[in-house]
Amino acid sequence: xxxxxxxxxLKPVIYGIRTVWNTVGDGEFFCPGCGGDRNYRRLTGxxxxxxxxxxxxxxxxxxxxxxxxVCRAHFATDTLDHPTTTRFSTMLREAVHTVTLGVxxxxxxxxxxxxxxxxxxxxDAGLDDCTREQLFTIVEVLAADTGHGxxxxxxxxxxxxxxxxxxxxxxxxxxxxxxxxxxxxxxxQGARIALADGPYSPAEREVLTTVGSALQLCADxxxxxxxxxxxxxx
Length: 234
Fold this sequence. Notes:
This protein has helices spanning 4-9, 85-107, 112-124, 132-145, 154-157, 161-171, 180-195, 202-214, 219-231, and strands at 15-31, 36-51, 54-68, 74-75. The chain is of the alpha+beta class and 234 residues long. Strand 3 and strand 4 (74-75) form a beta hairpin.
């Protein structure tokens, strides 16, 4: 004989709300449920009141939501604002490379020690084929494009409008996805390059201050980190 609990479990559903989903887009995203990059479907839906499984009355719209192709969980569409693991790695490499170029543009490329430190920094970020010659050439091209000739005052022009915009464009989208320690690490990598041949020049300090701002670090924290890096033996 079935227990009362078993009978309740087998009781059919007479009425309820059913959502019918339609796919309106797809792509790849970082799934918070799986903890990795997955394919997704972007869904919109219509709610219907059902009786014995038959849809009768409309009950409004649902979504849009993002559905993971693996775990099938639904997430808000702002989940797509988080970069995939692959995209995040690319953004981080680009950030370190841009900061390196900014520091070199400010301090110059005549010091072999500075160039070696810059190359090591960029390679550690994942650009394994970086060389001194490549960095030197890029900095020279940037200087020519911005009109900073050999006679230009680097302290006055190192972080002009063009370079400042470039730093904000590259670092700004990355900053929200980095913890404070990660943002500080990017700044300190630039600081180590600048300090490779001695104390900061005014131009290098200006560039690094802009880097801190683009990484959403407050001015006091940026100044503290730069001062601490200058006191640390290389």
